[in-house]
Design a protein that fits this description.
Helix content is about 45%, strand content about 0%. It is mainly alpha-helical and about 80 residues long. The protein is globular.
């Protein structure tokens, strides 16, 4: 999604997940950095750096493909042992 948005690529540019990140590259960058930290703690190598200079827009993602309530319903239907 990062490349599609930052380099105006056509592939997946109209996908709902891509559209919800437009104008929120700073939030995407921050989320990516959180994942990098978690990966590092777990012993994985990180080989997908993002250009911080392109991290513009809102620092918070507040749009969802499914509402939080709907996400909880979806998770509960999966019958996992997680506490939802």
């Amino acid at each position: 999604m990062w490349v599609v948005i930052t380099e105006n690529k056509k592939g997946y540019s109209l996908h709902p997940e891509t559209l919800r990140w437009k104008g929120k590259l700073k939030a995407m960058y921050l989320r990516h950095e959180q994942l990098v930290s978690e990966m590092t703690i777990r012993g994985y190598n990180h080989k997908s750096p993002l250009d911080k200079r392109k991290a513009t827009g809102n620092a918070k993602q507040n749009e969802y493909v499914d509402s939080i309530k709907q996400q909880i319903i979806i998770l509960k239907k999966k019958r996992c042992s997680c506490d939802v």
